[in-house]
Design a protein that fits this description.
393 residues; Heat Shock Protein 90; five-stranded mixed β-sheet; phosphoprotein; 59% helix; Sig_transdc_His_kin_sub3_dim/P; alpha+beta; 10 helices
């Protein structure tokens, strides 16, 4: 009883065609019936396509014909309903041979439409034997076809079948192309997501490691202890980078990962302290301030917030040497706000939101309905503001 598909798109050409079918069938029946009634002709042995209309029943027959052909206008919109309407009106037309003959023709058209277009395929196919029983039980209900119309009907059926097969192949080809396009888009989306993850992980950790390596090189001869601390920080940053890289690569090899795979949980707000400690170890002082009431959040939201702070501090390390930074995490009643600011440095300032990292952050936040605002501060330095909606408690 459930639909197995959807109705095809109804075009203006199809609507006009359905109206023409109904009007043509009605006019042909009336015209042929009037001629047979008013013009005395020599009878021929072959049966006629339409039955003559009796003079005393013109009005009732006309109403019967109209009742039969009118539903055909809606045959593409409600194919199964039209077939049932034609069958339901058939018992009221058994006394009018002309209307009953046209009802049979209308049933053929409605039955074909229901079998081809109706999403209720089982009901449509089950209705066809019922229609056969209806008309086979009525006298002169299923008319014989004149010999001159046999080639037309055969060639017409072949043409309809060939056209249906061609349309089916065309729809199958279109569906196959759409599926291939959807697969390509899904693969491209996944590659872009993994690329953003790799960018977030590698850029931050490698930038910190490069700065610490440069500091270690400068103090290696004069202050071995400071150089040793810088090298330990590089080692710690490298381990953190490898752990997060295994995260991202695990997205690609999850099927092959065994139960003992060494994959740490995705970073969240609880790991901001470790992130800021690494940045401070690179020589950039960072102050973390938290306000509001911390609350459980989806892992994806926490990961997005962590990446915002990570990307902002990475840009500070890369483009604002000698600057200090401030991270504000505000837990609101309906949203999580993040503000990362720095005081500026001696290096060239970061581009105003034109990097791939910030673009990736905007896309990441957009998934959760969040926004990202970046730009230089009036007092100097740079700011990154992010807002992520949260479910109200």
């Amino acid at each position: 009883m459930r639909p197995e598909g959807t109705l095809p798109l109804l075009t203006r050409r199809g609507q006009v065609f359905d109206v023409l079918i109904a009007v043509s069938l009605l006019l042909a029946a009336i015209s042929a019936g009037d001629q047979d009634m008013r013009v005395e002709r020599v009878p021929h042995p072959g049966p006629e396509l339409f039955v003559p209309i009796e003079e005393h029943s013109e009005a009732s027959v006309f109403l019967g014909l109209l009742l039969v052909v009118a539903p055909l206008v809606l045959r593409r919109r409600r194919p199964l309903t039209v077939l049932w309407i034609v069958l339901a009106t058939m018992p009221w037309l058994v006394d009018d041979d002309a209307a009953l003959r046209v009802s049979f023709y209308a049933c053929v058209i409605a039955g074909y439409t229901a079998a081809v277009y109706s999403p209720y395929r089982i009901l449509a196919l089950a209705s066809l034997p019922v229609a056969m029983l209806f008309y086979s039980g009525a006298e002169d209900g299923a008319p014989t076809v004149p010999p001159g119309f046999v080639p037309v009907l055969i060639l017409g059926a072949i043409a309809v079948a060939a056209d249906g097969l061609r349309r089916w192949r065309h729809r199958a080809a279109v569906l196959e192309r759409d599926q291939a396009r959807a697969l390509r888009q899904a693969a491209e989306h996944e590659r872009a997501r993994i690329a953003r993850e790799l960018h977030d992980v590698v850029t931050h950790n490698v930038s910190v490691m490069v700065i610490q390596a440069g500091a270690a090189r400068k103090v290696l001869d004069g202050s071995p202890e400071q150089a040793r601390e810088a090298l330990l920080a590089i080692e710690s940053g490298g381990r953190a980078a490898m752990t997060e890289l295994r995260h991202v690569m695990g997205l690609l090899t999850m099927d092959d990962a065994g139960p003992d795979a060494d994959l740490a949980p995705q970073p969240g707000l609880d790991r901001l302290d470790a992130l800021i400690e690494r940045v401070c170890g690179s020589g950039v002082p960072v102050t973390l301030t938290t306000s509001g009431d911390p609350r459980p959040m989806p892992a994806g939201v926490e990961l997005a917030a962590y990446r915002v702070v990570q990307e902002a501090l990475t840009n500070t390390v890369k483009h604002a040497a000698g600057a200090s930074a401030t991270v504000l995490v505000e837990f609101g009643s309906d949203q999580l706000r993040l503000r990362i600011t720095d005081t500026g440095g001696t290096s060239r300032p970061a581009a105003g939101g034109g990097g791939h990292g910030l673009i990736g952050l905007r896309e990441r936040l957009a998934v959760y309905g969040g926004t990202l605002t970046t730009g230089p501060r009036l007092t100097g330095g740079y700011r990154v503001d992010a807002a992520i909606p949260l479910e109200t408690r």
